[in-house]
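**Backbone description:**
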Amino acid sequence: MVRVGLIQMSCTEDKKENVQKAVSLAEKAVQDGAKIICFQELFHTHWFPRSVNAENYILAEPINGPTVTLMADFAKKNQTVIIVPIYEKADEGIYYNSAVVIDANGKILGTYRKNHVPHIPLWEEKFYFANGNNGYPVFKTKYAKIGVLICWDNFFPEAARVLGLKGAEIIFAPTASSLASQPRWKKIICSHAIANNLFVARVNRVGDEQGQKFFGNSFFANPDGEIFAESGGTEEDVLVADLETETIRDFKNIWAFYRDRRPETYWDILNPLP
């Protein structure tokens, strides 16, 4: 069993203030016994993708920048795995919507870069983020094997299946979504848990950022697709729950989806739409 903490919080245009708040909430999660902690999508910035503005590129920082360095120190001090979603500057003019995974010893295990980048009103993300280029890694942390799908990624079931096939026990889903879409988020994320016999932890922003209202509602879903712990939709919260990862083996034995897969029949999914 592993205890996991999800941090849903409101953000401002002050990055330092956001990170300080995140650390304070993470300390609360540690006090509650959390061994893995995940923050929401782009937790260290305000929701700048709501509009197109080249000045926002200055918000990006490298993997070895101040936010990840601070969180690595926190992880080592508290023996806690941390998933750190940041606006990553990989090179001049190359930026990603990323999540850095830090192990309990403070070591950076790797980075997931959001593969599915939307371009819809108030989510003008293609202006800011390149498509991810490192696939769907699974990270073997001290406490569990985990994968990450960032926000829009969750509407592509192939991504969750790849993580499941690679042995992920928990998929973390940091998001930034509004009230109107919550039922859809719950359905798709719970379906990942069922189809892949694993746990999913969704953590969402809260707050009103220049008219863009985010609706928290962070939750955990078990391999039956049942939500067994959930936050409210308007307030900042530290949601902590115990995940019995040992039960995954039993689910896989009973619901043998991987055994009955027929990859040789799936060629059409690789072809472009007509």
Observations:
- The chain has a mean pLDDT of 96.
